[in-house]
Design a protein that fits this description.
Structural class: alpha+beta
Strand content: 5-15%
Number of helices: 20
Distance between the termini: 56 Å
Order of helices and strands: HEHHEHEEHHHHEEEHHEHHEHHHHHHHH
Helix content: 40-55%
Strand order of the largest sheet: 2-1-3-4
Radius of gyration: 24 Å
Length: 533
């Protein structure tokens, strides 16, 4: 889009919310491209989220502008997708959202991609520029090739990734990078684990500081009244929360606070971290759980167009309950429920609180009964083969393994192994790594290329390795190494991949094995198991 380079961003300060969509939004489906060819139109893809403030603003302003509606009606087929409902599209365009604005031609070639809110004046110019010059965006290099003989990170690459992690640590405030502040699970987990490893031989201080300062800062993002962690801070000192509450944030926070408690350290710090994990679980159980035991997806930042998050969350409990509250996305997805189950089980392991285990079991049973597809995998929002995604089956497998660790019930291990094998069957890409799902039959252009999401590839590699260690199944070990080779290729391409460090360490060494001899109903055997867990 050569003409777009000359366009300047026009700032718009409005914040009103759309009650209903004014455009005739269409469903995302392969038939759109045949229709685009028949009508000589382009496809305008608007990807939004229920919790996304600027998505609401764009729908209330830009997409209600009469001139824009006229142009879209003449030359575009408008499509709106809730990114939480469609993981494959969400991961494909996660670097451009939210909202994400994508324009494609009839052959599935991308003409335009833009991140964030676009005001009406600028959007009209962008539409005109696309109509005048609908040339496809240039392709990009795919990065380093996957080495079929690689089995581990080289010492040099391992050292360079570690150095990059520490270089990105903010010593003044905690956290990583120079923009937003939030907990990224793999990064914080590596700092915790590296600090523990170097206690025996080396200098753990930089890693322990990075973990402690980050976990301390992130506690400022926890809602002090209802619990739950806000999405991120736009200030480096963690003082500028964006008030959405998303389940992936709660998962990473509980995971790392629990791990901190398990590793040990300063008693006051550990008590604060455990209290933080409990506060997050309290919000999940009190506000995000349905009557059936399943967990919902997210909570918006704002209670309405005239009651934004900063004002609402400054209120006490009684004042919050007396008026409108930020809406909750009440969809129940397999992936998100798997995340919550694993998180609650991990917290149960360090607290022994039976209410946590009960909540985890109920959500797991609901997911098993309502989201398992005929092909054995897990549908995202439906128990259907065409809705299965890597993240859903993976998250349920992780949840099953977590429940096995919490209860020692082998049915959970058996299901985790079964799901691991289904992941290999349905999502392994022979070219490297694991894909979110197979491209749709007849997919065109960029959509014919499978999407591979980094964090999911880290998680599936680690899961398959754990399952291989539990079962001694060579096929699972081979699949874990297949995933590791893909992560190595990303690290060799210069990406900061803390998760690759975690996977590399786990694949290269045998984990500790503990065997408890005794009946499951024997109190002494149970006490030994809980101590070992």
């Amino acid at each position: 889009m050569r003409l777009l380079l000359a366009l300047l961003l026009i700032t718009f300060a409005g914040t009103s919310r759309a009650e209903t969509a004014s455009l005739p939004w269409q469903k995302w489906e392969p038939a759109l491209f045949d229709r685009a060819a028949a009508e000589d139109k382009y496809i305008l893809l608007h990807m939004a989220a229920v919790w996304c403030h600027w998505c609401h603003v764009m729908e209330a302003t830009t997409y209600k502008d009469p001139a824009i509606q006229k142009t879209i009606g003449e030359k575009f087929i408008p499509v709106r997708v809730d990114q939480d409902r469609d993981p494959a599209l969400s991961y494909r365009y996660e670097n451009w959202g939210w909202p994400a604005t994508i324009m494609l031609d009839k052959d599935g070639n991308e003409i335009f991609k833009r991140r964030g809110y676009i005001p009406p004046e600028l959007f009209q110019k962008l539409l005109a520029a696309v109509i005048e010059d609908p040339s496809a965006l240039p392709g990009f290099a795919v990065g380093a090739a996957v080495d079929p003989d690689a089995v581990a990170l080289s010492p040099q690459r391992r050292d360079s990734v570690e150095a990059l992690v520490l270089k990105n640590f903010d010593k003044n405030n905690g956290g990583f990078g120079d923009t937003h502040r939030f907990i990224h699970g793999d990064t914080v987990e590596w700092t915790l684990e590296r600090g523990r490893a170097l206690q025996r031989n080396g200098d753990p201080a930089p890693w322990r500081e990075a973990a402690a300062r980050t976990l301390e800062g992130a506690r400022r993002l926890i809602d002090p009244v209802w619990g739950g962690m806000f999405q991120y801070s736009d200030r480096l000192d963690w003082s500028g929360p964006h008030y959405e509450k998303l389940l992936n944030i709660q998962r990473d926070a509980i995971r790392t606070y629990v791990l901190s408690h398990q590793i040990g350290g300063d008693p006051t710090e550990l008590a604060n971290n455990l209290a933080a994990a409990k506060d997050i679980a309290r919000w999940l159980i009190d506000f995000m759980r349905s009557d059936s035991g399943a967990f919902f997806t997210s909570q918006d930042a704002d209670a309405g167009p005239d009651l934004h998050g900063d004002a609402f969350y400054a209120r006490d409990d009684a004042a919050r309950r007396a008026g409108p509250q930020p809406p909750i996305d009440r969809n129940a997805y397999a992936r998100e429920n798997g995340w919550v189950v694993a998180s609650l089980a991990a917290l149960y392991d360090v607290t022994g609180d039976p209410a946590l285990l009960l909540a985890a079991r109920r959500a797991f049973d609901w997911t098993l009964a309502n989201r398992r597809a005929p092909n054995g995998g897990f549908g995202h929002g439906r128990a259907a083969d065409d809705d299965t995604h890597l993240g859903d089956t993976l998250a349920v497998a992780e949840a099953a393994l977590a429940l096995y660790r919490s209860t020692a019930e082998r049915r959970y291990l058996g299901l985790a192994v079964e799901l691991g094998e289904i992941v290999v069957r349905d999502h392994l890409d022979p070219a490297g790594g694991f894909m979110v799902r197979q491209p749709e039959p007849g997919a065109r252009g960029v959509l014919a290329k499978p999407v591979k999401q980094l964090d999911e590839n880290v998680a599936v590699t680690r899961l398959l390795n754990l399952l291989a260690r539990q079962t001694d199944k060579p096929a699972l070990r081979a699949a874990a190494l297949h995933g590791m080779r893909y992560l190595i290729s990303l690290a060799e391409d210069g990406l900061i991949v803390p998760g690759a460090l975690l996977a590399d360490r786990e694949l290269s060494r045998e984990p500790a094995h503990v065997t408890i001899v005794g009946a499951k109903d024997d109190p002494d055997a149970r006490a030994l198991y809980e101590a070992a867990r």
